[in-house]
Write a structure and sequence with these properties.
mainly alpha, 72% helix, 0% strand, binds ascorbic acid
Length: 127
């Protein structure tokens, strides 16, 4: 990244894209949208790919500016890394579940993934 604020923009964009596609699966997982196995699988593949991207945007100097990132991300870096790894692993599981085409599998995996999102939001994201 040229500047820290570019990294902040990048990681927020990655989370935004990931959330959009995660949300499309969530709509089916919560019966708010009709289930379509191909749509679920396509979106889960995007979520898995996107999940790997934001972390590069948390480098030195990126704790400032337009961000809700808490200082604990850097002072408690091992815990943050664990939370990130848990999320990446759980959305890989979600992608695997989506490939089965079975809505119950997807619902279960979606719920587990959502927990890993929330764990980091609660610990590392300001209101
Ligand atoms: C979403 C989304 C999140 C997570 C989180 C899960 O759909 O945008 O950030 O799920 O709300 O608790």
């Amino acid at each position: 990244f040229q500047k820290p604020e570019d990294a902040v923009k990048y990681r927020k964009a990655a989370f935004t894209v990931m959330a959009a596609h995660f949300g499309r699966i969530g709509a089916m997982a919560s019966d708010r949208a009709p289930f379509d196995a191909k749509v679920a699988a396509d979106n889960a593949a995007i979520v898995e790919a996107m999940s790997k991207l934001p972390w590069a945007g948390f480098g030195p100097g990126t704790d400032k500016g337009e961000t809700r990132a808490k200082p604990e991300i850097w002072t408690d870096a091992a815990q943050f890394k664990k939370g990130a790894d848990d999320m990446v692993a759980s959305v890989a599981q979600l992608n695997a579940a989506a490939k089965t085409g079975n809505l119950d599998n997807i619902k279960k995996a979606f719920g587990e993934s959502a927990k890993t999102c929330k764990a980091c939001h609660d610990a590392f994201r300001k209101e």
